[in-house]
Amino acid sequence: xxxxxxxxxxxxxxxxxxxxxxxxxxxxxxxxxxxxxxxxxxxxxxxxxxxxxxxxxxxxxxxxxxxxxxxxxxxxxxxxxxxxxxxxxxxxxxxxxxxxxxxxxxxxxxxxxxxxxxxxxxxxxxxxxxxxxxxxxxxxx
Length: 141
Description:
The chain is mainly beta. The chain has strands at residues 7-9, 15-19, 27-33, 36-42, 47-51, 58-64, 75-76, 81-85, 98-99, 104-108, 116-118, 134-140.
């Protein structure tokens, strides 16, 4: 039960039910407070089911094989994209790309340099630390 004027802090990806016995109107405010979604109640009646959509959402990450103008006969495509939640390890398994005469070194957030998100063997090198979709680029050695 959430009384008028009180707040209920939610955890990522949670489904929360709350009920208030006061008032006869319905005002729900959902906002971020110190990185956590928060619901503030005012004048609620009945039962309210709140699905915290957008919290721990999955983002699309494109895996660009980064082969420049190489002929199609020189490479094979791997996994094209993955869906990942912020703070989660990169999804595995993925199909690794190949490029003739080169060794795949992993996927990074820049065409040259950058932060590595997938290791050369396709395992997660780090958690997805962004609240957005993006493109990762294969590096070759």
